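To: structure desk
From: M.T.
Subject: fold request, one chain
Message: Could you run this one when you get a chance? Sequence is below, nothing fancy, just the single chain.
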Amino acid sequence: MTSGPALSSVAPLTAKEFAWITTFLRKHTGIELKEGKQTLVMGRLDRRLRLHDLVTYTEYFQLIAGAEAPGETQMAIDLLTTNETYFFREPAHFERFPTMLPGQREIGGRPIRVWSAASSSGEEAYTVALTLAECIPDRPWEIVGSDISTRVLETARRCLYPIDAAERIPEKARRAHCLKGRGELDGLFTLRAPLRDRVSFVQANLMKPLPDLGLFDVVLLRNVMIYFSQETKAELLDRIDGLLRPGGYLLIGHAESLHGLNTRLKLIVPSVYHKPPA
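Reply: Done. Structure tokens follow.
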């Protein structure tokens, strides 16, 4: 019995190649890839090199720069920017949500709008949906999730997650708004359609011109800026400010801060900032 052709053996990432991918990621996403992340890069790109029967990362970078594989640039970005996320991560933010929402008289009949600006595979956006469904069940609201990665957005739109992921959802919300999969979906869960349908997802690169998203009452930009330089943070913050309604709130990660950045947003408690009313 003969075996098939052997897979190519990928050479280790060199210092020059790591510098190239660092520049590539900064240019396309604003992310500053730190020294010591060579193993992460190799672990995430190794399969792509093998798929294209390439031996060195330089060959892969040439493939990205050329016209032979037009989708490969997006694939590399998808693989290198995927971050950990889960339901009700940093729960203090969601406990504070009722105090951040504008009053019904203040906004009339328009819906409250929330933007999950780096929504990854959707858990954050759906956590906001579960929170709003519980704290303002009779008021209109809508949520927009965005991410640079097309791959994670596909997962977000499907809204199918391992059943173990539901353990972080409070029992009351889980019973009211979640459905356990059956048959071929056994071991998975989703959110009920009336809630799921109020959440939409769009691809957006936060460091490039954004699609027409409208204005938001609350923006979540959590655990994103830790990867950016101060200059990039300032640019991003300016973009976010332009989409945040006067009187609205910006939530960032608990390990992050806007210290040293020129902004009119006022710190309320660590990681929660308020935009003064007009």
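Reply (cont.): Confidence is low (pLDDT under 50) at residues 1-7. Let me know if you need anything else for the meeting.
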